[in-house]
Amino acid sequence: MPLAPEIRLFLAEDAILFWARLEAEAGRRLPPPFWASAWIGGQALARYVLDNPAVFAGRRVLDLASGSGLVAIAAAIAGAREVTANDIDPYAIAAIEMNARVNHVAVRTRWGDLLDGESDGADVVLAGDILYSPALAERALPFLSRASERGALVFVGDPDRGHLPHDWLEAVASYQVPMAGAPEDAQIERTAVLTPRGSPS
User: What is the pTM of this model?
Assistant: First the structure.
């Protein structure tokens, strides 16, 4: 991972080809293996977590739509008391567990869609690259807002794919995007970590 080289992940060299192979083996259509790439918004969020351990140490962290587990692993390395990595894809859950083991950290996994509920008492909610489509942003932003209103710290890693509410979120860090990364990020030059305006980050 260019922005978080200290974290080791099992990733696909070519996520599209890997997806085709998974579907061939399963004999049915499968959701895209988002967990098989380290998306640049997640990389930025992981970098921010690693560089600011005092914000996360001793806290209960929820990593929403965790994918490969990159951000959850960063939170565990930063000293979070408890880290829960959530995803709707059971393959992602398996990848998170494997990636946590290879990085020698404890990460709990939680499978399923949490967006219509609450953040389960987390002190910090992390969301790397969850706003990549209008439909998902429409569901994720209210969840993040509820978490913030409840008193949780909320951090979003996003390269501004067009669905960021700039009237609510403000950048706390910005990173130049390295050349290597997921194919989805090929045209992106900068990425940021954002938090709700007025949040005590």
Answer: 0.90
